[in-house]
Amino acid sequence: MSQPTTLFDKVWDRHVVKHITGGPNVLYIDRHLIHEVTSPVAFLGLEKRDLKVARPDKTTATADHNVPTINQHLSIEDQLSRDQVEMLTTNCAKHNIPLYGLNHKWQGIVHVIGPELGLTQPGMTIVCGDSHTSTHGAFGAVAFGIGTSEVEMVLATQCIMQPKPKKMLINVEGVLSKGVTAKDIALYIISRITTSGGTGHFIEYAGSAIRSLTMEGRMTLCNMSIESGARGGMVAPDETTFSYLKDREFAPNGVHWEKAVEDWRGLKTDPDAKFDKEYHFDAADIEPMITYGTNPGMSVKISEPIPKAESLQNGEGASFRKSLDYMGFGDGDIMKGKQVDYVFVGSCTNGRIEDLRAFSEFVKGKQKADNVTAWIVPGSKQVEAQAIEEGLVDILNDAGFEMRQPGCSACLAMNDDKIPAGKYSVSTSNRNFEGRQGPGARTMLVSPLMAAACAISGKITDPRELIEG
Questions:
Q1: Residue 424 pairs with which residues in a beta bridge?
Q2: What is the pLDDT of residues 138-193, one digit of tens each?
């Protein structure tokens, strides 16, 4: 009788090309996603060694990090950004790699377009020179970010050398309360296990609360696995997964679809399979969450105060106070009612159509607060088109908002969308490090629902207080 195995083991082990004794595995990669920031040096490395891309058909490129989110029909003003986008175009043409560049109907954030095009599928190994590649694990894929030298390795060989991570189970059982989203689950988990709690592990998310999430919710959750220090996160594929993928551009079709689904149904953890570490949480304990510090683990329920410095362990008081000083907060403070200057809705965490729908539904019939500057940025051209078709843009305009064009935008401020120094940004993105959204910017991570509540009220607001019905 075979040993019970986890979902992670099943996907990883079927992709091992070679076991290196006392070293890493050589792992075959099914899908390599590239963008304009981490690929130029990798392509230069190929050129120096006179190498070609091994599998251009397994490589997909888009422009997202550096692109402006207004006037995309014009030449990019920032020279570095323009050079990187142009270099991506040149490299893709030279190596025959499909590129969805600016103004292409499929352009968008790399971790948004992969799933919506059906390029992301259960059982795959997926890599990208971007840490939030963990997003694709929502489909039951082993997906993780890699460095530039590793991008070159995959381009040249379609393989990568990786030590096999340990396995962690995070089980969330129960029913989520009104106003609680996948983003809140992610922030809640990170606040409990810390930003280093997942180090060296691949997480499998399980339990009734996880199964109740839509695919886009699961993507949000897996996206933030990296913020707990984990190598990646994944959810076992099920009928929700299959329904999402069916008839997408690059998904299998006809008899190939039936065969694929039959295989995908077997991608689940066996009963009695062993994990290296397990956590179990009650969905009823999760509330709308908000960060107060300078890492994603520094978050609280909206109903709770910022912790007191003396309650911390392991000598964390000094860094805790430094973080609060940067944010302009005090320990024991209540977050509700605090100042809001900017609201950002977008990124590979919360820039999908469901996120725009949730935000739009919340602000419908209301008005944006005068003191708030809001950037609503779709994650892709397809999301943009859908938002227009569904009338979401009209709702946003009526409420005083304006939707921009697709890109990473203010998530990481590599582009023109930077939060000014000292200003407070309520953001649906994934990181709140010092200067992440611009030098001196102060970031508070939230769900799209809380972002909407803050945009309407002009201050930090519990979204449950404004939800009607």
A1: 442
A2: 999 999 999 999 999 999 999 999 999 999 999 999 999 999 999 999 999 999 99
The reply to whether 110 falls in a domain is: yes
Residues 265 and 383 in one domain: no
**Whether 304 and 243 share a structural domain:** no
Same domain, 250 and 177: yes
Distance from C-alpha of 355 to C-alpha of 349, rounded to nearest angstrom: 9
**Phi, psi for residue 136 in degrees, rounded to 5:** -70, -15
Strand partners, 205: 170
Q: Find out whether 168 and 204 touch, Cβ atoms under 8 Å.
A: yes
Q: At what angle do helices 448-457 and 353-363 cross, to 10 degrees?
A: 30
- C-beta of residue 152 within 8 angstroms of C-beta of residue 240: no
Tell me phi and psi for residue 286, to 5 degrees: -90, 130
Cα(119)–Cα(243) distance, integer angstroms:
15
Q: What is the pLDDT of residues 13-44, one digit of tens each?
A: 999 999 999 899 999 999 999 999 999 999 99
Q: How many whole angstroms separate alpha carbon 307 and alpha carbon 329?
A: 11
